[in-house]
Amino acid sequence: MTPEMLRKNAQPEKFTNSLRYISTPSSNARDTFFYSQEVGYLQSMKAHRSSRKGLDSFLFLYVWTGSGKLMTEDVVYSLNEGDCVLVDCSKGYYHESNEYTPWELLWVHFNGKNARAYYEAIKEAESLILSPADPSRFRETMFELINLQEEKPPCYEAYTSLKLTTLLTYMLDEKIDLNLLHAEGDEESMSVKLRDIRRYLDEHYREQISLDMLSKLYGVSKFYLCREFKDRYTYSILNYITTMRLNYAKELLRFTSHSIQEIATLCGIMDANYFNKVFKKTEGITPTDYRIEWFESTKSADVLRRSVRK
């Protein structure tokens, strides 16, 4: 459905033209995915207020055109064209179109097992309102989401979950940019530094790296560096280094005959006992068991391939 068709198919009501698709998710969708409860389009013809409370739902709202305001958790926000907002509907809210520039909204009520975790992560930003420099990716994803409910192709619930995840990921991405904008120093400079630091870690993770060394090398305080790196890449710096080392260790375990001590050393961990402990804590099995498991899997695959050739 094109934007023109969406507007054309909207049904006139007292104060609005609207189009909505109400969904009842399957048990599989409830257990596995993000799922849509209702999704739609609203065009205000004049100023009016819509309110709800006590819903087991989250609302993503995108202002296509016009302006208005939204109140949730006792805070009133101004909303303008291109703005996005994520609302916890259990806490109650209302939104109201502007009298002189009535809005068009694209919206979706949704839920899912991880919905609250995403909401809390996004809420860490200074405001629930996002004003992206390029809102087109939110708008296009909403059109795709509405089209899924209209067309219901095979696996549409999985695709609906994908689009909802995309919207939430875009909001997290915008949150990171917002945090950088309000951070110490110049936004672009800090963003470049973080990318440079990650590239440095990618190249030097097998060496001995300390926060003091990184702080001095890039001219950023340890506290600020740790906070901004984790905010952008989700890993702490030390966890990122450990992850890179474990990735390399898995490669060596699978494709070389090096001993566990040699592999630990090659990965930048001098103590094999500590290497074993970290590996098991992360993977749930020892490095030796990991090597055997992948070797047996590869051997079984080779046997299968040989039997197919025969």
Walk me through what this model shows.
With 310 residues, the protein is an alpha+beta fold. The protein folds into two domains: 3-181, Regulatory protein AraC (Jelly Rolls), CATH 2.60.120; 187-297, Arc Repressor Mutant, subunit A, CATH 1.10.10. It has helices at 3-9, 27-32, 115-123, 136-151, 156-181, 187-204, 211-218, 222-233, 237-255, 260-266, 272-283, 287-309, and strands spanning 11-12, 16-22, 35-44, 49-52, 58-65, 67-72, 75-80, 84-88, 93-97, 104-111, 129-130. The chain is elongated, with a radius of gyration of 25 Å. The N and C termini lie far apart (52 Å).
The secondary structure category is alpha+beta
What's the story with the biggest beta sheet?
Answer: 7 strands, antiparallel
Based on the structure, what is the oligomeric state of the protein chains?
A: single chain
Query: What string gives the helices and strands in order?
Result: HEEHEEEEEEEEHEHHHHHHHHH
CATH topology of the largest domain: Jelly Rolls
Using the CA coordinates, give the radius of gyration.
25 Å
Distance between the termini: 52 Å
Relevant CATH superfamily of the largest domain: Regulatory protein AraC
Instruction: State the CATH architecture of the largest domain.
Output: Sandwich
Q: What's the number of domains?
A: 2
What's the count of strands?
11
Q: Which geometry do the CA atoms define?
A: elongated
Main attributes?
single chain; 310 residues; alpha+beta; Jelly Rolls; Arc Repressor Mutant, subunit A; 2 domains; seven-stranded antiparallel beta sheet; four-stranded antiparallel beta sheet; elongated
